[in-house]
Structure formats: C-alpha cells, structure tokens
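tool_call: predict_structure(chain=1)
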Amino acid sequence: MTVADGDTETAAARAKAALALTSRLWRQRFGVWWLGRVRGDTLSRVWLPAGILDPYPLYARLRAEGPLPRSRTGAWVAARHQVANQVLRDRRFGVREKGAPYPPADDARGLTSGNTALDESRPEWDMSFLELDPPHHSRLRRLVAPAFGPRMIAGYRERIERTTHELLDKALANGEFDLIRDFATPLPIAVISDLLGIPDVDVDRFSRYGNIVGASLDGVRSVRHARELHEAKADLNALFSRLVEQRRTEPGDDVISRLTGPLDEETLDGRELLNTARLLLVAGFETTVNLIGNGMLALLAHPDQWERLRADPTLASGVVEEVLRYDPPVQGTTRIAHEEIELAGRTVRPGQWVVVLLGAAGRDAEVYHDPDRFDIARETGVEHLAFSSGIHYCVGAPLARLEGEVAFRVLAERLPELVRAGPVHRRTSFTIRGLSPFPLQLRVPASTTP
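tool_result:
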C-alpha cells in the first residue's frame, strides 16, 4: 500500500507525526534549532549552505579548538582522528539512549512466518542495526555479515567489471555522459540488487529513494519530505515482502533467501527483516555512488593525479582509499554516553552526545602529512574512518572498495580523456556528501576507437 492508494488523510497524519518525531530527535542530537541563529558556533555552521559546500575549513577550526571542544548546541565534537576513533571503539558509547526500549512500544511486528502484512505503524525510516546497540546490533549484523565476506565479495568482481563496461558502452553509444546518472548510480544499484535477489531493478526509483533517505539523515525537512520517506518505506516493504514469499518456495543464493530461514525460525521478526533489507539496499549503493562521484571530481581537479592513474590504472585501489580519507561520502555520525566517561581531558556525562566528524578526522595533520593534498599514492599506516570504526564498522566496506577500484580503473583505461562538460552541483545534505549532476565530455583517443 502507498499513499497513491487513496488513504490521503492517514498518510498526511503519518507524515506530520514523522516530521515531529525526527525533528525532535534531530534537536536532541545536533541542536538544529541553532542553525542560522548561533553566531560563532562552528559545529552549527557545517549544516549551513556554505558549510555543506566546503566543510573542511570549519573542520580545521574545530580541530584547533582542542581535542574535544563543546558546541553551543551542547554536543561534544570529535574532529581529531585519535579522539574520533576512540569514541567509535569505546563500548561505553552507544547509538541509542541507554535503556531505550526495543522494539519501541508503538512498533508493529510486520511480517511474521505466517503473515505478510506490512509494518505501517512507524512512518519514519528505521536504519536497522545501524541504530542499535548490542545485543540486537550483534544479532542482526551476524545474519548479514556472511554475504559481505571475502569469498562472496571476490565472486562479485566479474559481475562488477561486466556491468561497468556495459554502462560505458551505453554512454559511448549515446555520445553524452553524466557520471552520476549514467554510471556511478546504476553500477552499485545493479550489484546490491543482485546480492539481495531483487529481480526487476528500477534504477531511477531506487536512486530517488536513496536521495530521500540520505537527506533524512540531516533531519526531515518538511511534511512533504516526511511523506516521501513514508512512501519509499511502504514501497520497499511491499517489494521485500513479495520477495520473502517467493524465496520461501524458490530459495536462491541471495541475502533475502538467507534471511527467510531465521524469519521462519523466529530468531528474526518481520519488522527486523524489512528494516534490514531496506538498509542493505540503500546503504549498499549510496556510499559507492558518492565515492565514485567525489573521487572523479577530485581526480579531474588535480590533473597530475588523474595523469598518474591514467598511466598506471593499478593505482585505482589507492584512489579509493585517498578519496575516502580526503572527501568521504559519509561526513559524520553520533554517539551517546551510557555512563560517565573521561575523554581527552573532558568529562562526558551519561546522556550527552558526541558528534564524530569522520570527514574532519581524515584531514588531521597529526595523522596525515599535508592532509589537504590529494595524493592517490599516499602511504600511511593509519586507516581513515570513512567506514566508521569499532562494532559499527561498515559491513559493506569490502563491496564498496571493490566497486570503487573497478570503476576508477576502467574509467582510466577506457576514457582517459574525460573532462568536465558543465557545472557540478553538491547535494544539499551534510551527512551524505555527494554530487547531483556531473556532466563529462567523452573524448575517446583515436587509438581506442573501434
């Protein structure tokens, strides 16, 4: 069921409820009520248009304010690599308030072993185990982790390379090329859909849902945005509910088939399955879309680095790691103290929030030499935090790395004369940092023309 089915008043009420709830959560976490009002509060400014366009000077100011400055919003700020990594790894911090009920009291169970009714009681978007602490986080993560193990991911290389070449063939045939629309988006959507077992992939629809969900991580902006979020949730719930029923009789080698067993064994409930499936779909392509977009923007803005990659496409894996450090797709996350914690000489009390700026940690001069320089051959013994750290380290990181490595390598091999063909626009969200249109001019060398 979707809003289009006619239940307009109910949908509007749900949208308003979602807006009220997410706005309240956003105020608690980030103090969004200060935005545009608090002068001199550096953290607040990263959510303003100028900060979204280029947050890195603001990050430098935050690092200069000390190892753990405190915003006027009340949140502590971890902008240095060491402190950020410490917060992410410390089990005394969580992603939920200590003692918060699970599942929430108003949460319907949705799918069960004998009932495919959709979970329509909570209109906001649930990010599954990303928003859970142990033991529920550990239980759900264990169910999906095997699908992203080394052997499984290695088996996807051929599919990724084939899809990459098909997309570039199509772009060359059309004679025009928008990196985001024609390549960076359809590539990871095709791969994650295959992994999940989705038979009929609608790239435009999934991409639209990704933009809606990505923007919601900064807070739901309007009743319309809340309604869009609800529609996306209901549509994907219906899609995955149908897939579960199909996999019960026709199981395959995909994630939905693997989750159907725990559902029927009642070690996983329907709400958890739907939330997890939606998370894997959207998170499974959003990171890679913006990794490729941010990476190509950086390469073309630094011609010497693009030339190095063209001359030696085996440097593509280095491109992936440098982009994740230099301009990561996910800029920040949060943790809440579950007990009193001494951190970087400050006392963080129970219930207080720490904003962990992943993008700022990647530019920390105490860890990276000349951190504002983009260098695809950079050697460092310290891993960036673009995929987080600790128990919430991104389960799909190996897949995103592989997709990025193949994408940059094949682009350098097949389209070494790529140049920008028009203005590039940043998405208007802070947490998810990426590009919207990215038109490129296809100039294929005569020697490679069939």
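agent: Confidence is low (pLDDT under 50) at residues 1-36, 105-110, 112-123. Proceeding to next step.
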